[in-house]
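Sorry to interrupt, but I need a hand with the structure work. Could you add the entry underneath, on a fresh line?
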Amino acid sequence: APLSPDRRIACGLCARPCPAGAKKVRNDLADAKNLFLTGRKVYVSLAPSWRAAFDLSESQVVALFKRLGFSGVGETAVGAEEVSIETAKVLNGAQKGLFISSACPVAVDFIRCYHPDFSYHITQIASPAQTHAKLLKEREGADVDVVFVGPCIGKKNESDRHPDLLSAALTFEEIKIWMNDDGVKVEELNDEGEGFMPRTAYEGALYPLTGGMIETIKRVGVRADVQMTAVSSLDSIEKALAGLDPSKLESVVFLELLACDGGCVAGPCVDTQKSGLENISARSEEHTSELQSRPHI
């Protein structure tokens, strides 16, 4: 029997294999385009897995969104870095118990719908997308609109629930449709233009990979006795929670949960031949050297 709407977690698992094409991702292009009719400025919160979807440089991808009418582009990964800082504070201040990451909206919905007993253990920290949208509004003005762009269908549910922060959520596929509609050609995009506002992300760029959040938390600084484990795919999450009794834990245990097997770089709306590691390590040489040399937050 079909699931009731409140139990659909937008994981995308039914959309890819459907031979008849009956299962489709909701198209929000019209809603996003209508934002420009209000006269307000519209900014992009771009998921760090953008390199998996677009064979473009940083300045080219910014030029792309400028061509589509956006006022500026920031990396969601900047919000992810703030999330890691807050998560480290929570873990360092705890004595024992289970803590589950709130970064992946599909994993969060999966727990709330199908394993509600574990809902209490989800950290009360806004997701990277929400955090980044708040940062953009603080910087550019509370009345600007923020549109998330990434590989995740679950972000559409997230934007529906937080319209004060996210005015819309688009997939990479929707952006490619928009490019085609507006006749935007990749070869015409400026490769010497603006970069991300207000800066390029560093550690947060690791979030799309399994274990990336944990790596950024380590860079922030976390107690040696805190146990951290990354789990990706709904099936693996199901197995990880089976038989787990948080009340019996004698130490702090943090679970980084990602709904997609391999992380966000394997999201339902990423069409690429690159490996996940290549998508992240493909950052330009200067940004890679900055990441390696940058001191801990």
Notes: The longest strand covers residues 252-258. Residues 1-5, 275-297 have pLDDT under 50 and may be disordered. The beta strands are 42-46, 72-75, 97-100, 145-150, 168-171, 227-232, 252-258. Residues 78 and 263 are 18 Å apart (CA to CA).
